[in-house]
Amino acid sequence: MKKARILMVVLFLLGICALLKCTTNNQLPAADGDEKTTRERGEFPDFGAMIPVAQFLKQYPGHKIFKLSQDYPKQLPGEDKIPAFFKMPFDDKSKWMDWLLAARDYCFEGMIDADFVAQDNKKRDWYHMPWLHYGPLASEGFSGLAKEAPISPYQLAPEQKHPGQVYALGFYNDFAGHTLYKMWNTSTDPDPFVTQGPKGGFPEGTVIFKFLYTELDSLDVPYLKNPYTRLAYITPTFKDSTNRIVKTMNLIQMDIMVKDKRADKYGTGWIFGNFCYNGNLNKGKTMKDRVANLVPVGIQFGNDPGYKTNWINPYPVVKTMINDTLKETFINASADLPPQHLGWGGRLDGPVDLNTASCMSCHATGEFPQIAALVPAQAFIGDTLANGSMKYLTQTDAPAWKKYYYNFKCGTAYDPKKATSTDFSLQVSLALEYYWQWKNTLMGGYYSHQYAGIQHMAIRGGIPFKQVKMIKKRGKKQKVDTLTQTQDGF
Question: Binning pLDDT at 50, 70 and 90, where does residue 186 land?
Fold first, then answer.
């Protein structure tokens, strides 16, 4: 009888193993072990979308395949390892550019020689976010680029008649990498409280940078001449989540996030920097040196919540409108910088970002589960130009809009009663969401956090361009202030 019971247990366990094996697909953590064993080894998948192996070997002989940098440091680096540029002033209008260029140089040291392959950098260690291989926005195998956002016609230049899309790859230094170790090096599920304040969050010394690419070229965007390129396996359009094609992608933007306690006095603890590619400068003798064509757009260390004048620079942009009244955003006035739409009221935003948002306001929404929309609905309500782009907003008195431009303290969830903070990291939010989607599919059933509220995907750009027309006229119009491009100071 006892032997029979043991036999039944064994058969039951074998049945479970067989069931798990049948439900396994190419987006699971590994093919040679269960999730617990794989996670303990730290072996996350390198990418989630790629052409068949035989096709790759035949058509792209000698081409490198992307490998996730995931040997996250177990120990937090000492204070003596904090980058030297942390001692430079960032909030001085006459010196902020020096700070931003020094931050860029820190990111580039050893990386240019390594062609931005993190594992080949001989100067310092950089890491990638795990779990971006999963789902319809999955990272691809040539360059590790993950699908991020749509680009509207005319968003980048007056010549841009076609829509486009954004794919990106982020890099995390050893301070940030230790946070990823603490979150993901658990034997079961990742720990979302690692980035929740007051005890959690990315540490002082964290530097994160991201390269953003588009399939659009100089025919649509003249400043993408002499491009810095990567091969990628992308969807033909942003709306297409099924099909993929091999395409050359052009670098258009670089983002930097820096965790600096000196920014605490502005209520955020973070400093954001932004660059736009301008190939017309024709810097760099080789392809890997062309990153020298990245021109500073500006920095932001707060949302200037006291500045409420309602204006945006509509697409297509012919001139950068610099708002010198802002105290927590500084913008580059150099002629080397292609015309920028920036964000609401002239706050910092990159070329592939929305002109109704800002770097700081968007990243402040980062939480898990992602209850908050990265861009609130009010950013799409207003009057539009004939080309369909937003001219000005009409709902900026709404409480949700005012909250969007509040200075949130690092490690604070946007919806604290329903979510934990991902400390301004939207990739952390995405990775956690993908993990639980996978576990949902593998195990069946649902989890309580999925019913905390309507969840949003942490996609740059918010509502796709064609959906704007559905909501742009909603609500009573309020009085707005509009600024022309010829107004003094802009």
Answer: confident
Residue 174 has pLDDT above 50, yes or no: yes
Cis peptide before 198 (omega within 30 of 0): yes
Secondary-structure breakdown of the chain: helix, strand, coil percentages, each rounded to the nearest 5:
30, 15, 55
Provide the residue count of the chain: 490
Q: State the angle between helix axes of 2-23 and 426-443 in degrees (0 to 180), rounded to the nearest 10.
A: 130
Dump pLDDT digits (tens) for 69-116: 999 999 999 999 999 999 999 999 999 999 999 999 999 999 999 999
How confident is the model at residue 442, as a pLDDT? Answer: 86
- The residues near 365 (Cβ < 8 Å, ≥ 6 apart) are 372, 373, 374, 404, 414, 426
| 23 phi, psi to nearest 5 deg | -85, -5
- Is the predicted pLDDT of residue 482 greater than 50, yes or no? no
By the 10 Å C-beta count (0-12 exposed, 13-18 middle, 19+ buried), 4 is classed as: exposed
CA angle 391, 297, 146 (to 5 degrees): 85
467's tokens: 């959906």
Instruction: Tell whether the torsion through CA atoms of 298, 296, 141 and 43 is positive or negative.
Output: negative
Instruction: Count CA within 13 A, CB hemisphere, residue 237.
Output: 7
Question: What does the buried/exposed string (b/e) look like for 78-111 if buried means 16 or more CB atoms within 10 Å of the residue's CB?
Answer: eeeebbebbebebbeeeebbebbebbbebbbebb
Q: For the segment 124-158, what is each residue's pLDDT rounded down to a tens digit?
A: 999 999 999 999 999 999 999 999 999 999 999 99
Q: What is the 3-state secondary structure (H, E, C) of 438-477?
A: HHHHHHCCCCHHHHCCCCCCCCCCCCCHHHHHHHCCCCCC
C-alpha span between 448 and 437 (Å, rounded): 13
The answer, yes or no, to whether residue 18 has pLDDT greater than 60, is no
